[in-house]
Amino acid sequence: MHYSLIYSAVHGIARERGETEDIVQEVFIKIFRALRDFRGDSRLSTWIYRIARNEALNATERRRPVSVPIEDCEDLASSGDDPEEARRRTITRERLERLMGRLDENHRMVLELRYRGEKSYEEIAEIMDIPLGTVKTYIYRAKLSLKRMMTGTRALEKGIGES
Description:
The chain is mainly α. The chain is 72% helix and 0% strand.
């Protein structure tokens, strides 16, 4: 029931699929062991989010991935797609993932919860324990930053290609 919340929280920090899946398993074990200690002072989803976030932060400190193995890259192309278009989409997705990694943690987290976790603004505010207006601001600023970085990356690539 809370898998998407946990996955989004962890992936926002770990960013690498294999590591994210390992940490998610650790989070479920930690939640199972600590469930009897849950006092109900906050919503269960908030408590779970904090466990997931803390576990992801701890795990990434212990082991930093250096690269993503090729077999971990998802293929967005269906068999009927134009190969060139599929390649462009794959490159765009990889660029977006890389640029998301450059966002500050709060901006990356709100985007992860919103688009991967499919959480409403209100749910994100509660999960992250921040005001609703702050969620909206973070999402706006994160999108703006990504747009600027994507535009800057394209301009830089065009400049390099013309040399």
